[in-house]
Structures are given as C-alpha cells and as structure tokens.
Amino acid sequence: MAILTGLMSFTKGHGIRALSITGPKGLFVSQVINGVMLTAVINEHDYVRLDDERFGKLLFAFSPIISKVIKMTDTNYYTFLGRYVYSGERFTYEPYVDIMKTITISITKRSVRIIYGENKVNLKRTKKGYTPREMLDTLGYIIEKLHGGNA
Asked: Strand 47-49 relative to strand 119-123: parallel, antiparallel, unpaired?
C-alpha cells in the first residue's frame, strides 16, 4: 500500500469533541456538541452522513488520548492540528502542542503510543474496551475514502 498523508484535527473542550481528517479527495468530520453527534464525509460531488457507531467510537477513543497529550505537554491548546501518515499497518498523527512543537501519536493493531521527547505512553485499549486494532481499521476506512479508494 502507498503511504497516504493529510491533515487531522481534534478538538476537546467542555461539551465538545470534534475530529476532522482531510485528504486530497474529501473531508471526514465527526463531532459531538452537547450530546448531539454528526458524522459525515464530504467531497466535491457528495455529502454522506455516516450513522455507523464505529465513527462515534473512534471520536470518543481519541478523547482520552488527547487528555494524555494535554497532561504530558502541559499545553493550553484545546484544538490539535497536525499531519497524519497512514501506511496500512500504522497511523501516525503529529499535532502541534505549542508553537513549533509537536507530539507523535502512533496507532498500530497492538497499541497506541504517545511520544513527546523522552516521555512515552503505551495504551492497549480504552476503558470501554475499544482496541487499537478497531481504531486502525476505522481510520483506514476513512483515509481510503479521502484518498479516492473504494473501501
């Protein structure tokens, strides 16, 4: 599989969770604001609302990861924008946590690894049992859509 890249953003605020992933052929958005969820894929020809629960699970799986990022970096940010790289076996997201400083979040089938300087955290699943494999599978589906694949 080719290496696929794009931009990803995650926002975590009081009563708000929002994930957006951008590729050359479209935009994936998933957000919850005060308990109301909307998930969709948008491209130049179409808008498709996604009701599958796996997209909501992905959104909520990123929330504790971002909480760990905030704690590790002592950042004041609540929206994290950065580049992603997807290879099929690994999804890497490098959001900015301060001016000119990034953190690396790497997701494989076995773990989610957060790396900031010498600090590393490995996660095997969320408190609700959502696994890195499920995250990677859902991210792969989304990214294939955004890069023109037929996933």
From this structure: unpaired
Structure tokens at 138: 């859902």
Report pLDDT digits (tens) over 86-104.
999 999 999 999 888 999 9
From the CB of residue 51, how many other CB atoms can be counted at a distance below 10 Å? 9
Q: Is 5 exposed, middle or buried (0-12, 13-18, 19+ CB in 10 A)?
A: middle
In tens, the pLDDT along 44-89 reads 888 888 888 899 999 999 999 999 999 999 988 899 999 999 999 9
Half-sphere exposure of 48 (CA within 13 A, CB side): 13
pTM of the predicted protein model: 0.91
What does the DSSP 8-state code read for residue 54?
Answer: H
Which residues is 112 bridged to in the sheet?
A: 107, 123
- Residue tagged 């979040």 (tokens): 105
